[in-house]
Design the sequence.
């Protein structure tokens, strides 16, 4: 299969690192890209977590005779895409309110990243607090209107807990990864079988085992 190339002098060819202070694991999938799954570890106890990103490729179909070519994607481009696509789908995000996650050039273990990007991480923490506050405010409004736990997302409960404030709607949530629906881009726990927003089946194997009104799913 033909392979496109890019200029080896480009700094983007180096490894890249996703730096996170988000207090839960993040899973992001990139369709059409190989590798396409990226799991950013949970940042524990206010510390930093990192994920090293290397070169990925996407495939472009040309025609029957020539088939497809693989197009390399630089690590920094991939890392930024993972971060931006995940952030843009979230509730409560604004100019100065967003989760504490960013992409940088180079390969940085967590401790090295915390030292090297200390100023940037401090700015991320301030933005993340604002994001958490936005999530809690939205949850407060929905709770006042509906008073139903199903109206409150796990992200909002994470935010409430992270801010160390008490809310009636903040019931216990099992810590687990957060995934994004491929159809509507809603975020939800990784254990979800069906997207609560658009009803897309997230786990076909588990869905096929479900029964409804005592009868197997047809």
Sequence:
């Amino acid at each position: 299969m033909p392979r496109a190339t890019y200029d080896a002098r480009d700094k983007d060819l180096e490894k890249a690192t996703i730096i996170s202070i988000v207090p839960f694991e993040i899973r992001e999938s990139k369709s059409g890209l190989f590798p396409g799954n990226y799991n950013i570890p949970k940042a524990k106890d206010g510390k930093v977590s990192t994920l090293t990103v290397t070169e990925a490729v996407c495939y472009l179909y040309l025609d029957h005779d020539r088939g497809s070519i693989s197009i390399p994607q630089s690590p920094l481009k991939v890392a930024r895409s993972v971060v931006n696509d995940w952030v843009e789908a979230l509730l409560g995000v604004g100019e100065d309110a967003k989760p504490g996650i960013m992409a940088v050039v180079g390969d940085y273990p967590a401790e090295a990243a915390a030292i090297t990007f200390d100023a940037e991480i401090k700015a991320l923490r301030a933005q993340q607090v604002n994001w958490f506050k936005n999530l809690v405010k939205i949850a407060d409004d929905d709770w006042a209107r509906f008073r139903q736990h199903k109206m409150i997302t796990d992200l909002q409960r994470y935010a409430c807990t992270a801010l160390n404030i008490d809310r009636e709607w903040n019931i216990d949530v099992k810590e687990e990864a957060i995934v994004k629906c491929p159809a509507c881009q809603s975020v939800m726990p990784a254990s979800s079988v069906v997207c609560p927003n658009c009803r897309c089946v997230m786990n076909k194997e588990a869905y096929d085992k479900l029964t409804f009104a005592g009868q197997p799913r047809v």
Summary: The radius of gyration is 20 Å. DSSP finds five helices and twelve strands in the chain. The longest helix spans residues 118-146.
